[in-house]
């Protein structure tokens, strides 16, 4: 019988491709996680990871065993959650997937309200882009997710808000004199692309244009975009949720025509959410509490 902590460490190292990051998520030392993996490899009679100076890579044997390990870990977590439900949610774990802007502006308020009534619940946050979140939810790595709708996977969707996309400009930019920015105006500007996935909402805005913007920069970080815009390197488009409490000297304007993304809450269709997730869903309206 394999130790559940060994299997959990295996899954986390596979997720992070780093013993150090996996150890941080488990609350262990890096050497302890390394020993756990060595012990598990001895038990399995297989090499699960290749270690080198350039990093950690999962082996073909590891990839073969990983889905089964995930199933065992998920079953253990599900069991712990159900036991917690028997005791009226005195304890338990909710694994939440989210995009960074919701993690910053919505989740603290939702969790604070939920924690007031259910102080024994623990949380594990998984940050990713839309596609990563949907994939993690579909394969059972997380219990629920906040993402853009509609989802590409077959998931239960709860729409929450229409989040307007806005032009982001240096404060002294000529376009900042306009009340709204025609999307065609971006064709003449250096543009910073916030890279999410191949079908992100900004790409959809420009899909019908004859001349595409000159994407001088591509980054994954919202704040890097705003800092570059502040320094006059380019212009961009960001969702309104990202632009809350902005510490940068920039101008934002609505687009013409207006553009929005739909944000929502996702759960799996293939299995019933735990009682903890169902109760957590009841607190989603707390996201905009003062």
From TrEMBL:
Residues 1-59 form the HTH lysR-type domain. One of its GO terms (molecular function) is DNA-binding transcription factor activity. SUPFAM superfamilies: Periplasmic binding protein-like II, Winged helix' DNA-binding domain. The keyword RNA-binding does not apply. CDD domains: PBP2_LTTR_substrate (cd05466). One of its GO terms (cellular component) is protein-DNA complex. It holds the Pfam family LysR_substrate. Keywords: DNA-binding, Transcription, Transcription regulation. It comes from the Bacteria. InterPro entries: LysR_HTH_N, LysR_subst-bd, WH-like_DNA-bd_sf, WH_DNA-bd_sf. Belongs to the LysR transcriptional regulatory family. This is LysR family transcriptional regulator. It comes from Slackia isoflavoniconvertens.
């Amino acid at each position: 019988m394999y130790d559940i902590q060994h299997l959990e460490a295996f899954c986390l190292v596979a997720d992070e491709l780093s013993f150090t990051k996996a150890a941080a998520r488990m609350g262990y030392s890096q050497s302890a996680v390394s020993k756990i993996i060595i012990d598990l490899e001895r038990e399995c009679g297989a090499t699960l990871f290749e270690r080198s100076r350039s990093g950690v890579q999962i082996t073909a044997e590891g990839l073969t065993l990983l889905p089964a390990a995930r199933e065992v870990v998920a079953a253990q977590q599900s069991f712990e959650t159900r036991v917690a439900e028997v005791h009226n949610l005195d304890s338990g774990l909710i694994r939440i997937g989210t995009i960074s802007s919701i993690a910053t502006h919505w989740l603290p308020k939702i969790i604070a309200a939920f924690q007031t009534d259910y102080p024994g619940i623990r949380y594990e946050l998984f940050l990713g882009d839309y596609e990563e979140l949907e994939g993690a939810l579909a394969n059972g790595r997380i219990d629920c997710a906040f993402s853009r709708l509609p989802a590409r996977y077959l998931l239960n969707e709860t729409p929450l808000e229409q989040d307007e996309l806005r032009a982001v400009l240096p404060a002294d930019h000529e376009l900042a004199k306009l009340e709204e920015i025609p999307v065609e105006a971006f064709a003449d500007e250096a543009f910073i692309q916030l890279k999410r996935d191949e079908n992100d909402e900004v790409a959809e805005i420009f899909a019908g244009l004859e001349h595409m913007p000159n994407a001088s920069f591509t980054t994954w970080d919202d704040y890097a975009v705003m800092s570059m815009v502040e320094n006059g390197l380019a212009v961009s488009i960001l969702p309104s949720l990202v632009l809350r409490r902005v510490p940068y000297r920039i101008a934002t304007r609505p687009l013409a025509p207006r553009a929005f993304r739909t944000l929502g809450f996702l759960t799996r269709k293939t299995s019933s959410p735990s009682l903890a997730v169902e109760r957590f869903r009841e607190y989603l309206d707390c996201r905009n509490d003062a």
